[in-house]
Amino acid sequence: MLEVKHYPREHYSTMFNPDTGFFARVEDEGEAEPFWSEHGPELLDISITNWCDRGCSVCYRDSNRTGRHMATSDYEMIMAQAAEIGVLQVALGGGNPNQHPEFCKILELTRLVYGIVPSYTTNGNGLSKAIVDVSAEVCGAVAVSAYPPFNQAAAAIEALALAGIRANLHFVLNADSVGTALSWMKAPPSFLQKVNAVVFLNYKPVGRRASGLLLAESPALKEFFVLVQDAQLPYKVGFDSCMVSALASLTTINSSFYDACEAGRFSMFISETLQMYPCSFMEPMSDGVPVNGKNLLDTWQNGPAFQKIRGELQSAKCANCRHAPTCKGGCPVFQEINLCDGARERHLKKVAGLEMEIKSLQKCNLF
């Protein structure tokens, strides 16, 4: 059933089908496309745990077996505010969210009590039959993170498929992994036949292994985007909004199929320690705002970090670029991950300059 909400003060409507996941924003006649949802976030990205048993080298949240779980009572406190301001969807993450001890309860509370559609991303471990069954009943989408050797992801996709869930596969694209992505497009492995889509996520330089992996430094970048458009694939392809600069400048994909960064515009992140941020990748770099029983909307509208990121995305720093109205300058947090030709050229020049400086210091025996 299509749910339509109109925001007359903001001159647009949202259309959302909680059963199929269809979502659209439609501006009022004669009005510009909305820049942000002043009435509150449309989506909450919530880390309900930082516990994870994998300890991956590229984990941007440094999740491990000592990670803490969010109390279910705290999650309900967030949901009560979310329902009041009209949040449509919740993306549950971690850590590995489905290994939260009360994960099934959290899923059911979200959909059946508060009327908000939950989705989540799993590393594949801990997908019990109970979790898969509840997921099939109440979730809008389930995603599986892809990590080599990929047998764990393949097993999770199979388990979800048996319950009628065509999961998405989340693949972090960096200078090392782009080769695997290219091979998957040339000769897709059999387990990808059962996924709904492969969603490519642009690597961000935070976490345990934060250097040497930037996609902008890969010579295979343009080949990847050529294949994305030309390959005949058994799965759909999607991207996170951190790829918007590449989609706008390196492809001919219609811009109506993607959007610029939504952090602080239409989405908010809340950590397992109850800290609010525009984006989860900002967590290691700044203090969040502690969420309590009544401040979610005020923080969204007036919090300095939220106002700052909206200001960055509205600035005219790329005013001379014809793609600026589409990508809004790309990522406002990590300029080095932007993938348009101009941003890549600036980054590569900076890398070359640093390399020259290091060589000079080495010659002087100062390094």
Q: What is the compact description of this entry?
A:
The protein is of the alpha/beta class and 367 residues long. It has helices at residues 72-85, 103-113, 129-138, 151-162, 178-186, 221-230, 244-250, 296-302, 304-314, 324-327, 341-363; strands at residues 3-7, 12-16, 23-27, 43-47, 89-93, 117-122, 141-145, 168-173, 197-202, 236-239, 267-270, 275-277, 289-290.
Tell me about this structure.
With 367 residues, the protein is of the alpha/beta class. The chain has two domains: 34 residues; 291 residues, TIM Barrel (Alpha-Beta Barrel), CATH 3.20.20. The chain is 32% helix and 17% strand. The chain has eleven helices and 13 strands. The strands form two sheets. A ten-stranded mixed beta sheet has the order 10-9-8-7-6-5-4-11-12-13. Strands 1-2-3 form a three-stranded antiparallel beta sheet, with no helix packed on it. Helix 2 runs parallel beside helix 3 and helix 5 packs parallel to helix 6. It starts with a strand and ends with a helix.
